Amino acid sequence: MATTTSTTLGSAATSPCIKGYPDAATRFPKLAEVVMYLQGLNGRADLSVLAEMLGRLDVKREDFSCACTFGSKAYRRNTIAASPWFELLALTWRSGHCTPIHDHTGVSCAFRVVEGSGTEIRFEKTPSGLVCPVGTTLMKPGYVCAAEENDIHQVANMQAPGTDLITLHIYSPRITKMNVYTFACSEGAERDDAEPNVYGAERLPEC
Fold first, then answer.
1. Cβ proximity of 112 and 88 under 8 Å
2. Could you give the CA distance from residue 67 to residue 90 in angstroms, rounded to a whole number?
3. How many domains, in total, are found in the chain?
4. What is the tens place of the pLDDT at every residue in 177-198?
5. Which residues pair with 180 in a beta bridge?
6. pLDDT score, position 197
7. Which range of residues forms the domain containing residue 90?
């Protein structure tokens, strides 16, 4: 069984306005169709419907710029609209920001790349208890990702410093916690005391 932990998404990971914008459909006309559909939900949304709606969008940063606050140390989840059955978020990423390796058990998750190019890394469970990468996708503006429940992935901004990534996400129902997985990590081999450390401290792999 793969090494798994459960991470709760608390208020520290979200925009200061946790409830988003009560008038989101009016305030962000380009998102009005999506917001109105989501506000009418009384159960979990169909993933294919979310992907199809995001695929039709013609939206840029300036269409919801007031919801595009960036984090200083990690990617930021900015709430545009939410209810118990959904949340619509603008995720903002500086170069090097990434999610944990995670899945979306119990939640329909779809997102669209609005600005910049993101990288999605897909993983599979292994008998070792760790997960192993099985593929990567370069996600350019307009790309829509629809993650199935059991998909294990990580999303990252691997662009050059100074290049931002903005993505528009829908979760249904609202995501409050997610399963987080572990990838292989090493600081080098065990060695005799007399053997030099061939991995200089400044070159140790990060985990």
1. no
2. 6
3. 1
4. 889 999 988 877 887 776 666 6
5. 5, 102
6. 64
7. 4-184
pLDDT range class, residue 1, cuts 50, 70, 90 = very low
Amino acid identity, position 25: A
Asked, for residue 195, whether it belongs to a domain, the answer is no
Evaluate whether 24 touches 88 at the Cβ level (below 8 Å). yes
Percent of the chain with pLDDT over 70: 84
pLDDT tens-digit map of 152-162 = 999 999 999 99
204 belongs to a structural domain: no
pLDDT tens per residue across span 128-152: 989 999 999 999 999 999 998 889 9
In this prediction the pTM is: 0.84
Does any domain span residue 98? Answer: yes
Q: Specify if 125 maps to a domain.
A: yes
What are the b/e assignments for 27-56, b being 16+ CB within 10 Å?
bbeebeebbebbeeeeeebebeebbebbee
Q: Which CATH number goes with the domain that contains 177?
A: 2.60.120.10
Question: Which residues are within 8 A (CB) of 84 and not within 5 positions of it... i.e. 6 or more apart?
Answer: 173, 174
In Å, how far are 5, 95, 123, 150, 189 from 130, measured between CA atoms? 12, 26, 10, 15, 19
- Which amino acid does the sequence have at 135? G
Identity of the amino acid at 32: A
Concatenated DSSP letters of 45-108:
PPHHHHHHHHHH----GGGGGGG-PPPSSS-EEEEEEEETTEEEEEEEE-TT-BPPSB--TT-E
Q: Are 56 and 168 in contact (CB under 8 A)?
A: no
